[in-house]
C-alpha cells in the first residue's frame, strides 16, 4: 500500500495525494446517510495524469471511485470500509478547452463546475441548458456520469442529449479520445452513451464536447394555482400547444412548498391572494422579444380558467420577481432538511400517470402512518416527481427514519405498478442496487453485467455501485 502511495505522490506531487484530515472536504456523503473512508484522495491535474493514476492503481489492484463536486444523492462517491478504494477527484481538470459559438459547441474538462460552463456560454451569447439546484458545486463529469436532468429537460433533454463527444480514461489506463463535434456520425456503435449515466463504473470521463444553444431573448415566468395534479397535467398539454412548444420549465409544487418556505425558511412570500393546494411554476422562452409568447400564454390561461383547470396566476414582471418565484421551488430540498425527517424518492412515470402516482401514493402512505406528510413535487413535464415524505409533526425524526424502508416500498410499488422507474435522474449509486436488480428485465441486467466485465474485468472502477457484485447477486 505505502509503495503505491509513494508512486502516486511522485506522479501527482505532495498536494495531489491526501491521506490525513485533509481528506475531510472530499470524504463525505452529501446526504450524510453513511460515512466514507477512502484510502487516499487523489487529485490529478490532467488527462495524462488520470491515465497514469489508473495504470498504477490497476497494477496494484487498488479500486478507484471517481468524484466531481460530490453533490450526488445516492452514495455514488462513498467508499465503504468493506471495499477499500481511493477517491479520484477530478476538480483540478477545470479548463474550458475550446468554445465555438458558430459551431454551438464547447469542449470542457470534467472538473469544470456546471455554473462556470453556463457562464462561459453566456459570454459568447449562447446558453448551455443544463440547470439544477447544485449547479454552483456539481461538475460536468458528475453531470454526465449521472445523466443529470434538472429543470429544462422538457425543452433541451437530459445531460445525455447535450453531449457531442467524450474523452474517457478506460480501466486499463488507455485514453479514448472521442471528442468529436459532429451532429451526425453513424460509424458504428455510439460508445459515448455507455459512459453517460454509468456513474463511473466503466471509465473516467476527463473531458466532453457539449452542445450550446441560442440565448433566448424573451422569458416569461408564471406561478399558477391549480386544483390538483390532474389539472396540472391537462394544463401542460394546453400550454404546449398554445405556445408552439416554447415551454422550458413546468414544475409542480404542493402548498407545502409555500407554507414550508414561510414557517421553516423564514421567507414571508405568498404571491397569490388565496392559498391553493397545488401550484405550477412555468417558464417559457422565445427567440426574440415581442414574439407574442406572453399573449399566447395569457389566452391559454384564460381558457384554462374557464375550464376550471386554473384558479389564479401571476406573471413575474421583473427579473427580481422571477428570482423570487424560483426560490420557492429551489427551497423545496432545503425544506426537506428543515423538517427534521424526510424520506426522499426520485421517480418517474409516463406523464399522463403522474396524477395517479400522487393520488395512490398519498392514500397508501396515509393508511400506513396517520399524520405522515408527503410533499411530491418536481419536473412533471418529464413525469419525474420527487416523491418526498416528511414525518408526522408529532413523531421524532429518528423513529420516523427507522421506518424509511417501508415508506420507500410503498412509493416504489406504486411507481412500478404505473410502469415507472425508481430512479429518474439521480442514478443508482450504492442505495438502489438491490431494487434495480430485483426490478430490471433479466436480459437487460445480464447485458449490463457483461458490459461491466468487458470494460472492467478486474472490477476497479467504482466497485459496489450500480450493479451487485458477483457474490451479492449469486452470479
Ligand atoms: C440541491 C441539489 C439539487 C439537485 N438537483 C438535481 C436535479 O435537479 N437533477 C439531477 O439530475 N440531479 C440533481 N442533484 C443531484 C446531483 O447534483 C447531480 O447528480 C450531479 O450531476 C452530480 O454531479 P457531481 O459533480 O456533484 O458528481 P459526484 O457527486 O461527485 O458524483 C456522482 C457520480 O458520478 C461519478 N462521477 C463523478 N465524476 C465523474 C467522472 N469525471 N467520470 C466518471 N464518473 C464520475 C461518481 O463516481 C458518482 O458515482 C441535486 C443535488 C443537490 C444537492
Structural class: alpha+beta
Identify the overall geometry.
Answer: globular
Q: Can you tell me the CATH architecture of the domain at 96-214?
A: 2-Layer Sandwich
Strand content: 15-25%
> How many helical elements?
17
Topology-level CATH name of the domain at 96-214: Uridine Diphospho-n-acetylenolpyruvylglucosamine Reductase, domain 3
Radius of gyration, rounded? 23 Å
What compounds sit in this structure?
flavin-adenine dinucleotide
The largest sheet is: 5 strands, antiparallel
Helix content: 25-40%
Question: Please, what is the average pLDDT?
Answer: 94
Key words describing this protein structure:
single chain; 20% strand; 475 residues; Uridine Diphospho-n-acetylenolpyruvylglucosamine Reductase, domain 3; Alpha-Beta Plaits; four-stranded mixed β-sheet; globular; five-stranded antiparallel β-sheet
Question: What are the SSEs and their pairings?
Answer:
Blueprint lengths: L1 H11 L4 E2 L22 E2 L4 H14 L3 E4 L18 E4 L6 E5 L4 E5 L4 H10 L2 E2 L12 H6 L7 H4 L6 E7 L5 E4 L13 H4 L8 E8 L1 E2 L3 E9 L2 H14 L4 E8 H9 L14 E9 L6 H14 L3 E6 L3 H12 L1 H7 L3 E2 L2 E3 L5 H15 L4 E7 L4 E7 L6 H5 L2 H14 L15 H7 L2 H14 L14 H4 L2
Parallel strand pairs: 2-4, 3-4
Antiparallel strand pairs: 1-2, 5-6, 6-10, 7-11, 8-9, 8-10, 12-14, 12-15, 13-14, 16-19, 17-19, 18-19
Amino acid at each position: 500500500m505505502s509503495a503505491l502511495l509513494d508512486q502516486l505522490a511522485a506522479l501527482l506531487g505532495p498536494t495531489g495525494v491526501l491521506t490525513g484530515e485533509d481528506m475531510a472536504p472530499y470524504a463525505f456523503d452529501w446526504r450524510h446517510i453513511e460515512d466514507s473512508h477512502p484510502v487516499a484522495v487523489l487529485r490529478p491535474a490532467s488527462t495524462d495524469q488520470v491515465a497514469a493514476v489508473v495504470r498504477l492503481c490497476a497494477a496494484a489492484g487498488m479500486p478507484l471511485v471517481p468524484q466531481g463536486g460530490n453533490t450526488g444523492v445516492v452514495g455514488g462517491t462513498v467508499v465503504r470500509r468493506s471495499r477499500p478504494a481511493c477517491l479520484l477527484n477530478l476538480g483540478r481538470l477545470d479548463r474550458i478547452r475550446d468554445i465555438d459559438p458558430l459551431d454551438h459547441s464547447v469542449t470542457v474538462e470534467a472538473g469544470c463546475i456546471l455554473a462556470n460552463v453556463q457562464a462561459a456560454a453566456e459570454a459568447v451569447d449562447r446558453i448551455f441548458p443544463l440547470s439544477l439546484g447544485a449547479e454552483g458545486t456539481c461538475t460536468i463529469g458528475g453531470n454526465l456520469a449521472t445523466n443529470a436532468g434538472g429543470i429544462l429537460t422538457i425543452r433541451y433533454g437530459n445531460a445525455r442529449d447535450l453531449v457531442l463527444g467524450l474523452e474517457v480514461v478506460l480501466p486499463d489506463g488507455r485514453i479514448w479520445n472521442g471528442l468529436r463535434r459532429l451532429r451526425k456520425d453513424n460509424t458504428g456503435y455510439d460508445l459515448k452513451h455507455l459512459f453517460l449515466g454509468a456513474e463511473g463504473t466503466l471509465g473516467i470521463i476527463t473531458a466532453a464536447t457539449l452542445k450550446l444553444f441560442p440565448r433566448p431573448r424573451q422569458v416569461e415566468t408564471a406561478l399558477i394555482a391549480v386544483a390538483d395534479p390532474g389539472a396540472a397535467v391537462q394544463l401542460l398539454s394546453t400550454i404546449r400547444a398554445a405556445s408552439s412548444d416554447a415551454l422550458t420549465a413546468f414544475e409542480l409544487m404542493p402548498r407545502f412548498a409555500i407554507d414550508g418556505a414561510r414557517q421553516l425558511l423564514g421567507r414571508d412570500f405568498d404571491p397569490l391572494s388565496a392559498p391553493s393546494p397545488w401550484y405550477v411554476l412555468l417558464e417559457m422562452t422565445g427567440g426574440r422579444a415581442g414574439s407574442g409568447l406572453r399573449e399566447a400564454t395569457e389566452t391559454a390561461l384564460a381558457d384554462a380558467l374557464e375550464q376550471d383547470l386554473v384558479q389564479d396566476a401571476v406573471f413575474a414582471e421583473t427579473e427580481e420577481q422571477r428570482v423570487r418565484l424560483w426560490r420557492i421551488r429551489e427551497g423545496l430540498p432545503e425544506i426537506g432538511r428543515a423538517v427534521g425527517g424526510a424520506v426522499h424518492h426520485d421517480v418517474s412515470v409516463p406523464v399522463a400517470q403522474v396524477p395517479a402516482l400522487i393520488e395512490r401514493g398519498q392514500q397508501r402512505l396515509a393508511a400506513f402512518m396517520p399524520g405522515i406528510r408527503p410533499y411530491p413535487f418536481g419536473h412533471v413535464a418529464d413525469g419525474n416527481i420527487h416523491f418526498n415524505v416528511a414525518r408526522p409533526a408529532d413523531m421524532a425524526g429518528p423513529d420516523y427514519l427507522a421506518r424509511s424502508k417501508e415508506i420507500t416500498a410503498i412509493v416504489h410499488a406504486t411507481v412500478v405498478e404505473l410502469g415507472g422507474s425508481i430512479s429518474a435522474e439521480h442514478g443508482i449509486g450504492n442505495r438502489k442496487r438491490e431494487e434495480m436488480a430485483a426490478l430490471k428485465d433479466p436480459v437487460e441486467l445480464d447485458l449490463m453485467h457483461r458490459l461491466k466485465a468487458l470494460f472492467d474485468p478486474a472490477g476497479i472502477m467504482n466497485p459496489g455501485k450500480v450493479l451487485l457484485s458477483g457474490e451479492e447477486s449469486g452470479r
